[in-house]
Amino acid sequence: MIIRNQISRICISFQEPFFNTKNLFFIKHFSSTTHVTLYSDIQNLDTHLRSLCAKPNPQYINAFSHFNHVIDDLGQTPSEPTCNFLVVTLAKNKEYNLALRVYHKMRKVQALPRFLSLAALVECYVYVHSPKLAIGVLGLMLKNGYKVNVYLVNVILKGLCDNDMVVNAIKFVWGLDMKEVTPDIVSFNTLMKGLCKEKKVQEALDLRFSMEKVVNFTPNAHSYAILMEGLCSVDRLDDSILLLEEMRKKGLKEDVVVYSTLIKGLCNKGYVSRGKELLNEMLEKGISPSVVTYSCLINGFCKQGKLKETTMLYDDMLDRGIQPDVVTFTGMIGGLGNNGMAKKAMELFNLMIRRGEEPGNITYNILLRALCKERLLTDAFQILKLMIEKGKTPDVITYNTLVKGLCEIGKVDDAVTIFDSMLGDETYVQPDVITLNVLIRGLCQDGNLDKAGKIHNKMVEKKSLVDIGTFTVLIGAYIKAGDIVKAFELWKQLNQLNLIPDSITYSTIIDGFCKLSALNIAKGLFLWFRQKGYYYPTAFDYNSLMDALCKEGSLEQARKLFQEMLDGNCEPDVISYNIIIRSALEARNLQSAKELLIDMSKRGLNPDAFTFSILINRFSQLGQLKEAKKLFERMSASGLTPDITVYDCLLKGLSLNGETEEIIKLLHKMASKGIELDLGLTSTVMECLCNVSEDLNVEELLPNFSQKNSKEFSIPCSELLKKLRKSLPELQLDSAL
After folding, report:
1. Running DSSP on this structure, what letter comes out for residue 324?
2. pLDDT score of 728 more than 50
3. What is the residue range of 632's domain?
4. For the chain, what is the mean pLDDT?
5. How many CB atoms lie within 10 A of CB 720?
6. Which of 157, 356, 444, 560 has the fewest CB atoms nearer than 10 Å to its CB?
7. Higher per-residue pLDDT: 541 or 535
């Protein structure tokens, strides 16, 4: 007898620099029916059916097939007790659909269901997402004279709430005959959880008061945990903390569930340090944290890139004998991946496997994303191979990650191969709009617009994956390539398909013409789209136009657009200010640049590294060294890292003013920061050293740059200075500065 089985074969090979992505896995299914003979009496039939459900090796599918066959094909009917036994047994073992099919067959042969069978049906209908039918079964039970218990009521409530029918659930509860069945604390906790799930947190809080007043139930610790989680989900963190105080006043002791709920809520909203304080509070009270508690905090610190705190928590967790689970490891793997440490993430993943934890698709996809982000495609395909070997089925997120990774390293043809395989083989997960858009964008960036257009046309012809996002990407690519005819054809096509352009579409068109230096067209479309009310221009649109105008030299027009933004047409962002500040500096209007910087801060916008860089560079070049140094100090205080261009300009400015001590201080700062010296910066440092007065004994004051940072500075600066003075006595600073 061949019972339904599944065979999967892995055919992935990946070798640098070329690899084969055509050979992926295929799945085939084989099944056969069971041969059944005619039984001489019902007792033998009952015995055989029950034996098929017996442990330790139950064969539930065979039992159902046997049951179905003897009724439909042989005209025999198992006894009523056996029919009921099958319904209850199948439901108990989560074979809900089979249990329902047995029940419907029972009705056909007029076998009467018993109380346990009907109770099992209630659960079956709930778990197959048909809670209204479960209520119908409850009515049938009452009709047959059975007494309904609160357990069944709670099962139905859970089903209604899980299916986003919490309003129906509340009506169901208040419609119960309290003399026949009285809701308990579980009933009301289920309702409150359902309300919180639908973000109706205030209604959940009101229900708590109804519990206390109408049915005289006092919320328990679990009730408070549900409400706290709900409040956290709608950003009412302070109110969730107040509930903790209310619990204490009512004499309820907070437990690990309550604390973990609060910690999770705080961490999800970025308040990880506050969550850590609650952990410390737990420990002081002698409440042992769970793996959930630690996992929430570890995930929170990982998202913030605080790997030191993450490691300390992980070590503390192990010291307390709490073993990390899949969630813990997944959070840490994600944190390492987000911080550019994909290799470390893979080491942790391997440790997870060695410890016997079975990762799911989420873990695999997070690791694959980290590896692809760092262009470690060899490792990524090895992880994919392991994923398949472990019996996991890659989903569309898996393939989207790989397609994007391949496009980013220029292996677009291999990305196309994966996409074609997904389309052409039913055993693959079907691609979605994201897959198509990632591929089209990759082809456009690779300059293969012809291939991108053909794939898109094929999708349009099949009426599959037709999306405004794809049209937007292609229209923008054609405009930037100067093929306005193709772009216009696509515009007509999307209108024929009744697709509605969104703000990104309009922005892409305007930006495309800006990049094409067709500013008159870009400005005309900007005004026309706005006047027609097709969309409201975004900061991106204004920035595209202002940047193009500045590059063209039309500074006044750019400033007029910026003033429009300030007047309320659109809120400017940091990029908007950077464009206008740069234009002011190019016009040598230093006062205007300073005022813009002040106005920027007043609007709550923090200057970024680019803002400081353009200001420091220009002030240094124009001899405003005092201002340049102030900006440099402010930049460092803001936690922003100056680039080598900033250091280069400052060194040149200091050298022009003959500020030897300041040069030495800056060189020390550069060395301590591990600045890597490129050829240009190396030349500037040499020039500065050569212009230092020979009367000053600065050799001992100069720093030693790390050898790993620069081959030129693998020797102490003092030795370099001596060599330079002998070999380059006439080296002077560039007078053009």
Report:
1. P
2. no
3. 627-737
4. 81
5. 20
6. 356
7. 541
SS3 at position 19: strand
Of 254-263, 422-431, 569-578, 585-594, the range with the lowest mean pLDDT is 422-431
Residue 640 pLDDT more than 70?
A: yes
Give me the residue label for tokens 């047995």.
102
pLDDT tens per residue, range 197-241: 888 989 988 888 877 776 677 888 888 889 988 988 888 888 888
- Nearest alpha carbon to residue 122 among 164, 79, 145, 92: 92
Q: How many domains does the chain have?
A: 1
Token pair recorded at residue 172: 């169901």
Query: Which one-letter amino acid corresponds to residue 79?
Result: S
Contact 652, 684 (CB under 8 A): yes
Indicate the pTM of the whole model.
0.65
Element (H, E) at 29: strand 26-30
273's CB contacts (< 8 A; 6+ apart) are none
Q: Per the domain annotation, does 90 fall within a domain?
A: no
Residue scoring higher pLDDT (173 or 353): 353
**Ramachandran area for residue 498 (φ above 0: left; ψ -120 to 50: alpha; else beta):** left
> The tokens of 645 are what?
């261009």
Torsion of CA 622, 626, 631, 635, to 10 degrees: 120
| 668 belongs to a structural domain | yes
Alpha-carbon distance 90 to 710, whole Å?
71
Mean pLDDT of 365-383: 90
Question: Would you state the structure tokens that stand for residue 473, as one six-digit string?
Answer: 């990407």
Torsion, CA 342, CA 345, CA 351, CA 352, rounded to 10: -130
Size (the chain), residues = 737
Find residue 6's DSSP bridge partners: 29
Rounded to whole angstroms, the Cα distance separating 650 from 656 reads 10
- Chain centroid to Cα 699, Å, comes to 53
Verify cis geometry, omega within 30 degrees of 0, for the bond prior to 56. Answer: yes
Question: Side chain identity at 721, as an amino acid letter?
Answer: L
CB 284: neighbour CB atoms within 10 A? 8
Mean pLDDT of 376-403: 89
In a domain, 164, yes or no: no
Q: Is residue 663 part of a domain?
A: yes
- The mean pLDDT value for 546-561 works out to 91
